[in-house]
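Section 5: illustrative case.
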C-alpha cells in the first residue's frame, strides 16, 4: 500500500527554516556579534567637531559623528587641519567658537556616572585661543590655551536629563575651540562613596564631586590601548614613575583571572592591568641597611594643587601566591600608613588571582611637594620566607568642586514612562539589531580591506590584528625610516640565529621598550639585540626615534646602531655589544671591582664627548632626554658610550632654543625647569649629566628610599654638603685618600653648576667637557709628580678637549702652560 505523503507545505517550511538557521549560524560564525559581557553605555555621544562626515577611530573601533548631525552651536565655524597626517582622525577638524556657545546632551541615565573626554590639537592659529570650558555651572578649564595636543578626562554624576557643555572665549578678542567630544555613561558602581579617607571627611559625598583624571598607570606591564579597555581608556607603563626600578620586578600572569561577585569588574580595570604587576625584587641585596632585605617599592606621581584633594585608586591582584593567606603587605601614601596587613586573598572572596581595588582620598596637606608617593612593602605579619608586596595599577584623580547642574531631578515623574518606552522599543528592535550590526561590520570590513590594499601595494609587511599596533602603524614606520636605511635592515631569521631563538639565557637586560639579548651575527660580530613588546605604542615611538637619530650620527662615544628588523610585526634594534655593560653596575648594585678615580674621570669625559656631539654635531642638534648611568655603557676597555635614544628630540641648535614637549625622563635625573615649564633644551641633558657625576663620585643610587629622608634624593643631599664645602664627606669610601682636595672641589663646583635651578645658569656640555678634561690632567700631573718625587710645575698641561664648536677655551682660572683645542 502506498504510504501517504506529508503535505508539501510542511516540507517547504521545514527546509526554509533549516536553511535560515544555517545561514544565521554561518553569519554568527564569520561575523560574531559584540560580546554580551561587554559594557554597553545607555548614553553615548561621540562627536567629531567641525567635521562634515563621520570619523572612524580604528584604535577603538568607534564611529564619531559630525557635530553638525547633532547640534551646531550658533556663532561657530569649522576649521580643517591642513596636515595630511594628523595624530588622530579626531584632529582633522575643529569647531571654533567666536562667542559663548554650548552643546546640550539629552541623557537617558542621569543618575549613573558619566565619562567626559575633550580633545584639543592647536593647528593653524588655534594656539592663540584663550577660553573657559564649563559643564552646567561647574568650571572644567579656566583661561585655557592649547600649545600642543591635549586631552582632558572627567567623571561626574549629572543628576539631570540635559547636560550643557559650554565654551566661553576669555574676552571679545579671543575665541574657543574643540576637536572632539566623548560623553558616555558608566557602570553605576564604577565610582562609589566607599573609600579610605586620609583626611577629615568632606560633608559632600565623593559621587557629588567632579573628578579629573591625572594618571592612569599599568604597574609592571605595557601600555594598554583603547582597544583593550572596555571603557576605551589608555593605561601607561609605570617606568617613568617608579623611583628605584631595582627594588621591584615586573611579572605577568599566564592563567585566568577570577573576577569576584560584587567586586572589581573588567570595567574597573582590564585583565591586562590585573594580569601584570610589580613585586619586590627579593634578589636585590643592595639594600644592606634594611634588615632581612625588607624595603618598599615606591612610585612618585606629579600632581597640581587642589583644595579638595585627590582620589587615589590602587588596583591589586594576587598573582604571585600559591596558597591563601600567604601574602601580607602594607600600603603607604605620602609616607602615611594607608593600609596595614593587607591580605588580598581574604579581601577578594578568599581566592587567588582575583582582582581587587581600594580607593583612598588624599588631602592637600599630603602633597606639599607637588607629588603623591605610593609605596608598598612587607607587613609585620609577613613570614620570613614569604616577604613580598605587590601593586598592579594606579589611578589618580583630582577631586574638583561639588558638581551642580540645572534641571536637577527635573521630570523625575516621567522616568517610569521613559523606561517603559525604552524597554518596549528594545524588545521590538532586538531582532533587527543583529542583522544591522552584521551588515555594517561586513561593509566596514570590506571598505577597510580595500583601503589597506590600496595603501600597501608597495609593502611586504604582514597585517596585524588583535591589538592597536595596526598595519597602518607599520606603514608609517616603514615610510619614515626603512626606505632611507635599507642597508641597516637585518632579516628576522638572522636575528633568530644570532640570539638562539631569543633564548632566555642570552637575556642581559630589559626596559620600557622590551628585552635585550646578547647575540652574534654570522660574520662573528657581537651584538646587543633589543626586542620591543608586541603592540607597544611606546615601542613604536622609540623604534622610529632610535633609527632616525642613530642612522644620522656616528661618534666614538655613542653606541652604534648596526641594524634593525621590522618583519613579522616585530620592532627589533641591533647595536654593537658593550662588554662591560652599564656604568651603573660598576658603581653600585653588583659585585664589580670599584673603578679608580682616573677611570671614572675618563668615563665621564667620554660620555660628555658623546653628549656634546649630540648637541652640536648636526645642524638641528639632538637632545638625549634620558641621560642616566644605566644609559652610559662601557666596552672592554672601559670606553664610555651613550646609549638609548628612544626619548631623544631633534631641535637644539643653541642653548637658547627650546622644544615644547610632554615631560619624559627618569625620576631623580629630571631637570626641574623642564618638569615645570615643559620646555626642553640641551641644558636639560646637562642637569641629568650633573646627577650622573654625583653617582660617579658617591657610588649610590640617585633615589634610595631605604635611607633617612634627607638623604633619599642624591642631588639635593649632595648639594647641601657642596655648599658647606664638605663634599669629601659623602664620596665613595674607595676613593678617599686617592683624590686631592683641590681637584675634588673643582669637580664639585662643576656638578653644582650643572644642577643650577635654571638652564640659563648651567654650562654647555662643551664647558663641562673642558672642565672634566682639565681636572683629569691635573690628576695625572699630580700622580706623575708623586711618582718621581718632584714638585716641579714646568711640565705644560695640554687641554685636548675634542670639543666641537663649544669650548670657550678659557684658561684664566688655571695655571695651564699650553692650551690646545682639537676638533674631532
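Designed sequence:
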Amino acid at each position: 500500500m502506498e504510504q501517504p505523503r506529508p503535505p508539501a507545505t510542511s516540507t517547504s517550511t521545514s527546509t526554509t527554516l533549516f536553511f535560515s538557521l544555517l545561514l544565521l549560524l554561518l553569519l554568527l560564525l564569520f561575523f560574531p556579534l559584540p560580546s554580551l559581557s561587554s559594557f554597553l553605555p545607555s548614553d553615548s555621544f561621540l562627536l567629531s567637531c567641525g567635521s562634515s562626515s563621520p570619523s572612524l577611530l580604528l584604535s577603538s573601533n568607534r564611529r564619531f559623528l559630525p557635530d553638525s548631525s547633532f547640534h551646531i552651536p550658533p556663532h561657530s565655524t569649522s576649521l580643517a587641519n591642513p596636515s595630511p597626517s594628523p595624530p588622530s582622525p579626531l584632529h582633522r577638524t575643529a569647531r571654533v567658537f567666536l562667542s559663548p556657545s554650548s552643546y546640550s546632551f539629552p541623557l537617558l541615565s542621569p543618575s549613573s556616572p558619566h565619562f567626559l573626554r575633550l580633545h584639543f590639537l592647536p593647528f593653524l592659529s588655534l594656539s592663540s585661543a584663550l577660553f573657559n570650558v564649563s559643564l552646567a555651572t561647574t568650571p572644567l578649564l579656566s583661561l585655557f590655551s592649547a600649545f600642543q595636543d591635549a586631552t582632558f578626562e572627567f567623571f561626574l554624576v549629572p543628576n539631570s536629563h540635559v547636560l550643557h557643555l559650554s565654551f566661553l572665549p576669555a574676552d571679545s578678542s579671543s575665541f574657543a575651540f574643540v576637536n572632539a567630544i566623548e560623553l558616555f555613561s558608566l557602570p553605576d558602581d564604577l565610582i562609589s562613596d566607599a573609600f579610605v579617607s586620609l583626611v577629615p571627611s568632606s560633608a559632600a559625598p565623593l559621587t557629588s564631586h567632579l573628578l579629573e583624571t591625572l594618571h592612569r598607570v599599568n604597574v609592571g606591564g605595557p601600555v594598554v590601548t583603547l582597544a583593550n579597555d572596555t571603557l576605551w581608556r589608555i593605561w601607561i607603563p609605570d617606568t617613568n614613575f617608579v623611583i628605584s626600578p631595582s627594588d621591584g620586578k615586573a611579572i605577568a600572569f599566564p592563567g585566568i583571572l577570577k573576577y569576584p561577585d560584587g567586586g572589581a569588574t573588567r570595567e574597573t580595570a582590564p585583565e591586562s592591568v590585573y594580569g601584570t604587576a610589580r613585586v619586590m625584587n627579593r634578589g636585590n641585596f643592595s639594600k644592606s641597611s634594611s634588615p632581612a632585605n625588607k624595603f618598599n617599592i615606591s612610585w612618585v606621581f606629579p600632581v597640581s594643587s587642589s583644595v579638595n584633594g585627590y582620589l587615589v585608586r590602587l588596583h591589586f591582584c594576587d598573582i604571585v601566591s600559591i596558597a591563601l593567606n600567604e601574602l601580607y603587605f602594607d600600603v603607604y601614601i605620602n609616607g602615611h600608613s594607608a593600609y596595614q596587613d593587607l591580605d588580598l586573598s581574604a579581601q577578594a572572596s578568599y581566592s587567588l588571582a582575583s582582582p581587587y581595588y581600594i580607593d583612598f582620598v588624599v588631602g592637600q596637606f599630603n602633597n606639599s611637594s607637588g607629588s603623591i608617593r605610593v609605596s608598598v612593602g612587607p607587613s609585620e605579619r609577613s613570614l620570613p620566607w614569604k616577604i613580598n608586596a605587590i601593586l598592579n595599577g594606579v589611578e589618580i584623580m583630582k577631586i574638583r568642586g561639588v558638581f551642580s547642574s540645572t534641571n536637577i531631578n527635573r521630570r523625575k515623574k516621567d522616568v517610569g514612562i521613559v523606561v517603559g518606552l525604552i524597554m518596549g522599543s528594545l524588545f521590538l528592535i532586538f531582532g533587527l539589531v543583529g542583522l544591522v550590526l552584521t551588515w555594517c561590520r561586513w561593509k566596514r570590513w570590506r571598505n577597510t580591506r580595500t583601503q589597506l590594499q590600496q595603501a600597501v601595494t608597495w609593502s611586504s609587511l604582514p597585517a596585524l590584528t588583535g591589538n592597536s599596533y595596526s598595519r597602518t602603524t607599520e606603514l608609517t614606520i616603514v615610510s619614515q625610516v626603512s626606505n632611507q636605511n635599507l642597508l641597516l635592515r637585518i632579516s628576522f631569521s638572522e636575528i633568530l640565529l644570532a640570539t638562539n631563538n631569543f633564548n632566555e639565557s642570552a637575556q642581559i637586560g630589559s626596559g620600557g621598550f622590551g628585552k635585550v639579548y646578547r647575540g652574534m651575527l654570522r660574520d662573528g660580530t657581537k651584538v646587543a639585540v633589543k626586542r620591543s613588546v608586541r603592540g607597544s605604542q611606546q615601542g613604536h615611538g622609540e623604534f622610529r626615534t632610535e633609527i632616525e637619530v642613530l642612522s644620522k650620527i656616528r661618534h666614538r662615544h655613542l653606541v652604534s646602531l648596526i641594524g634593525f628588523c621590522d618583519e613579522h610585526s616585530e620592532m627589533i634594534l641591533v647595536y654593537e655589544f658593550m662588554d662591560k655593560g652599564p656604568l651603573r653596575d660598576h658603581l653600585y648594585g653588583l659585585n664589580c671591582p670599584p673603578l679608580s678615580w682616573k677611570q671614572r674621570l675618563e668615563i665621564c669625559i667620554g660620555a660628555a664627548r658623546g653628549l656634546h656631539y649630540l648637541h652640536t654635531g648636526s645642524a638641528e642638534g639632538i637632545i638625549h632626554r634620558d641621560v642616566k648611568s644605566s644609559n652610559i655603557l662601557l666596552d672592554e676597555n672601559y670606553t664610555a658610550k651613550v646609549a638609548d635614544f628612544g626619548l631623544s628630540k631633534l631641535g637644539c641648535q643653541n642653548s637658547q632654543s627650546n622644544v615644547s614637549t610632554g615631560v619624559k625622563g627618569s625620576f631623580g635625573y629630571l631637570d626641574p625647569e623642564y618638569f615645570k615649564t615643559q620646555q626642553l633644551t640641551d641644558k636639560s641633558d646637562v642637569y641629568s649629566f650633573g646627577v650622573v657625576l654625583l653617582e660617579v663620585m658617591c657610588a649610590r643610587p640617585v633615589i634610595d628610599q631605604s635611607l633617612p629622608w634627607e638623604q633619599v634624593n642624591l642631588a639635593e643631599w649632595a648639594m647641601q654638603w657642596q655648599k658647606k664645602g664638605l663634599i669629601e664627606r659623602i664620596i665613595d669610601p674607595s676613593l678617599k685618600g686617592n683624590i686631592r682636595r683641590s681637584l675634588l672641589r673643582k669637580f664639585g663646583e662643576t656638578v653644582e653648576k650643572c644642577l643650577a635651578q635654571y638652564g640659563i645658569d648651567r654650562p654647555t656640555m662643551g664647558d663641562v667637557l673642558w672642565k672634566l678634561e682639565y681636572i683629569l690632567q691635573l690628576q695625572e700631573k699630580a700622580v706623575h709628580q708623586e711618582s718621581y718625587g718632584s714638585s716641579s710645575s714646568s711640565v705644560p698641561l695640554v687641554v685636548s678637549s675634542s670639543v666641537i664648536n663649544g669650548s670657550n677655551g678659557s684658561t684664566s682660572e688655571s695655571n695651564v702652560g699650553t692650551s690646545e683645542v682639537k676638533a674631532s
